[in-house]
Amino acid sequence: MSLVAKIIQKIKLWIASTKPSPRDVSNTRPLFANNRFYPEEIPYREDEPSAAKFEIVHHNQYGDGVVSKIRFQAEQVLFRFSGNELPYQTLFTLQKKPGLYIEDPYFMGKILHSCNPNARVDMDRQVFIAIRAIDAGEYITMDYETTEDILFRQFVCECGSPKCRGLISGRSYRRISEDWR
């Protein structure tokens, strides 16, 4: 076998060994200094997400998601998030009000969508709150249409909930479609 063929074979073996399963906790994302999800230039905030309570896990179908490492009670504050205020939307923003968005690509921007979520967001306080009890090992989810008038990128939801609405575009689109019923 030629040297090039051996190198290609080793690369293929390495790639195959690093592919995560749909819920592979060994494929967690690294933290910044001091076990924070945020870089040092973002000031520490009380109740910010910690490695003791959460991990960021890659899911083959949905991308990075936040998984709880502990049990939370209904109505308990899960975490307070940080971010830059922007006059425009990105993939990692939540809408605070029309024309104002909070961008957090480190943690909050990795919360996955569900039409039957286990968490809600208080955008004034910038906190996530448990809607129901959340067990260790569960993904933290929110309904994107509760904060976004128009999503940065619409998608077909596959959350599996009996309440699944299918196409997720933003609450402005949801109001229009409900008016047509």
TrEMBL record:
Q: What is this protein called?
A: SET domain-containing protein-lysine N-methyltransferase
Q: Does the keyword Transferase apply?
A: yes
Domain called Post-SET: residue spans: 153-169
Source organism (scientific name): Paenibacillus spongiae
The answer to whether the entry has keyword S-adenosyl-L-methionine is yes
Q: What domain of life is recorded for the organism?
A: Bacteria
Keywords per UniProt? S-adenosyl-L-methionine, Transferase
Q: Known InterPro entries for this protein?
A: Flavunoidine_N-MTase (IPR053201), Post-SET_dom (IPR003616), SET_dom (IPR001214), SET_dom_sf (IPR046341)
